[in-house]
Amino acid sequence: xxxxxxxxxxxxxxxxxxxxxxxxxxxxxxxxxxxxxxxxxxxxxxxxxxxxxxxxxxxxxxxxxxxxxxxxxxxxxxxxxxxxxxxxxxxxxxxxxxxxxxxxxxxxxxxxxxxxxxxxxxxxxxxxxxxxxxxxxxxxxxxxxxxxxxxxxxxxxxxxxxxxxxxxxxxxxxxxxxxxxxxxxxxxxxxxxxxxxxxxxx
Length: 202
Known about the structure:
The chain has 202 residues and is α/β, with parallel strands linked by helices. It contains 9 helices and 5 strands, in the order H-H-H-H-E-H-E-H-E-E-H-E-H-H.
């Protein structure tokens, strides 16, 4: 975000509303994203149709901007941390790649998202995925406990990106890796964008 100010309450409120179905995700009204990425959206973001169809119903809210798993090169048995895991879309895909001998931790600061993700995991019988309530600037994860960190269009929402990366390196094991899909600011935000909740949270 442009200004170093606390916008966490705006972000938490917006994504809480998305999790509860009171607001649309990034794909907009009338899209297929709320019930699973449409084939065209899956392809545009780098997911296969099989990926989109394999996650529990309700895990995909159309909030990503790419496919961090395409960069992560996940291997069976690895421990994966998903920063800003939302309803669990990428976490569930990661769980398939690391298998039953691996483990996936999703962290999100929105209670409604964590509740939705946990419900999705329970319905799908995914017991090697755990969703935790927490901020990516202060991860509820032990030191040197993670092989790979993934994140899909979440780091841009933090006004303290340096702290996020500091935490990421704290929890990564030696030789661990980051796979981040995100947007990059290339010019200054206008004052109207700085003050507009939808612009800050989108």
